[in-house]
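Researcher: Here's a chain I'd like modeled. Treat it as a single chain, no partners, no ligands.
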Amino acid sequence: MKRLLYITVVLSLILSNYLFLFDPDEVEAAGPLSAQVVDYDSVDMLFTMPDGSFGSKQQSVTPKEVTISNPSGDPITKVELRDANTHTVLQQMISVGGNKYKAATPLQQQGQIIVGTNNYVKLDDGSFQWFRDPNKKVWMFDYDDSAADGGLTHRFYRNKDNAVYDFPPPTSCLQHKRGMPYGPTLPAYPSGYESTVQYCDSAYDYREGTLNVPELSVLSAPTIKLNFNDAVHLEFNTTDFQLDDLGTLTAANISGLSTDYIDIPTKKFRFNFTTLFSTYPDEDPEDTPDGRILTWYSNWKIKLTGYVYKYPKLEAVAYTAAPTAKVDLTVPTLTGSSCIEAGKSATFKYSITNSGPATSSPFKVKISADGVEIITHTFNGIGTTTEYGTFTYQFSAPGTKGITVLANSDNSLDEESTTNNTKTESFTASANCNGGGTDPGGCSLGAGCPGEWKGTLKVHFPTIEWKNPNDFNVTLTDPANGCTAVTGRFRVSQGNNAYAYGWTPIVGGKDTIGFAWQMAGSTTYPGNIGAGTVIVMYDVEDSCGRISLIGPEPFEIIKVAGAPTVQVDWYKTSTGAKTSSVVQDENVFVKAAATDSKNEKVTLSWTFTGSTSWLAGLPAFMGWTSPLNKMQYSNITASVKGTHQVCVTGTNESGISAKACSYLDVIGPEPVAVIDVGGWLKEGRRIELSGEKSSSPRDMALTYAWTIAPIAGQTAGTQAEIEYIQPLSGKLKDFKTPKLGNYLVTLVVTDTEGLTGSATKTVEVKPDLPPIVDIAGNNKAGRDVANRGLATFTVLGTGLSVDQDIIVKRLWSFTYDGNNDGIFNEGETAEIDEDSLVIGAEYLYSSNAESFYIAKTGVHIVELRGQHVGKFNIKLRVVEAPGQPTDLVH
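Model: Modeled as a single isolated chain. Structure tokens:
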């Protein structure tokens, strides 16, 4: 206490002299002081932005401590850590002693700074190949699907109708993933194809490799560079890329670009995309007995974009208040008898002074021996003079004890400082005394008198957080009085709480000791020390039997509340695996896990109520006693179907709570029927039913029974018109019907114990729509003398299936309006199959005795060449065949 007081006095003198050099008007008054720069540790920051903000890889950083310049000397009431650009308050700083302050908690990142490459990154050259099977019916390509099980390579097969294409056609078609035989065993189209793609000439592709990019730039400040590995996150710029001129593909052929990964430490990458192969291949087609190979180049130049964390430029702004004179108590002296005899009462005397204003408020003074209270005195105020007190104490046996006088022990007075309220002296009791009396000023040399050893006592950390350790060390100074230091001990005290370490031999004039949570058998800190100021002292026993006191030295324990986290899950007893769903009557247990950011003890409290009556009754049924605070509750039979939610709340020592809940779905043992409908929901087409997703909660084998029936009033179809393969059983079942409308499908699944489950689904059958026919051409023609005097009508006939059927015939017919009445009821030619006409040939036909010529001049282009003036009626009828399967497989 004397050393701390001495430092305070010296600082006051220095500040007084320093302020004398300035004009009084320039000294800052109470209130906010000028902002001071707060620095980061240079190892935490990558670069500085033009506005003074910083880029970093760290999600949180701890700024450096700052020493507040306070010329006025007024008390500092608070220090704010701010963003120096916006002056936003980020947090309150805490004192670490003197005018030094530090951040109370690590500073979290305040956003992102976008980094990347300003120029294109050239990737290694690549290519893509299409393959056509030997039968020329299937186009395929390889695609390494990283999302598939095990990362297996999958093949995607596309098929159209039976036409042969030299290149993947730009039309819609079906696809099949994974292996599928082709060649002689090629399945009939479209059997075995699961999904439809819009364009057969598009394909999934990917690029992967290792990037050759040594550094990145800050995109908003390109002169600022950083190492590639310093980025927090990187991905490819999906809107800024090119394909080089060596190939026919361009960026316009690319869609669906997405980054799969960029592994920053290794620079390995992969991205996925879809390519539309609407250009001619970059290499000549390669035809072999095994099929055809088409090759396109895929050489990429692309930019990278990503980010690092942003931290603001920092400043500290301190606030001061005008000083208020306060009481300041000190215990300057504590004396005892020159000889203290064990077993007899000894008288001790102490003094108390007040360096502040007088007060009439009562306060208490506690006297203790080695941390154990002897007596507490009450003083009814104190002036600016010295007050005295006396007390008696009896040593039960010879030995040394530290006696402490603590002024204002009840904290009833608001003091300027409480660090000088304690006085501790060591006193030694002897087996007997040959006379002697009180010695208010000390005692004569000899055993039992205070020793003369001095030294330096140091506390490693002036401030520690709750549960963190500290350590103390002492270096002794030999008084050269012929007495050697033999043993020593450290002592800590805090109000009524104190702990004395054991005596240990002193070696080399030094000693050290640790201070830790739960040491010496304590459940907290030793001596039940808590948050607040702790006083450290050191006793030296020398060879002359005298005790010297080194210290005291204070340190602070601060308690920052932790943040608890709680998790709760259900588990199957049979496997120990986490679960959210079990079969009725299965045995389970529920288990919680709790942590705390400050390693505080977390106490659990379970809530079984608020969900279902079965769960609410579990504690009583299972005999679990209150409080419900265990980590796990076991041997639970899930006997009631339904969804049951259990919750657990974890509360740490600071009173902060967190809550977590978990659901358990208890399902019955009955199997679950599931109907999936596929195929083609159209009149006369194969409709595919699947019960493959049906399941048994107990993993039993299932049998399947189907019923298919028209829904009355929703279709003109009848039961007799529904076609299927008997029997109506099995996981898969196909059917078709000639009538549109709604049909009810029912599936009943039965397990090996006879338990059943059922499902129904309405299937809407769409109509088989007729094709659309159109004729376009000239409706007037003049006779051409150069062409035998014939008038030529050129028409283009088109037929289109609106529901993906196949146009198989185009049939033309012609009529001449012989009487020119516009009715065209004269004789019509027989229908002419367009496929029977040879391009370039001319055919003679007649209508109502009028002869004319018909010629095919192109695909779906027909010319009528007439001789006489009049009108002709031209008709086109198209015939379509089913474009979807009509056969039944299952």
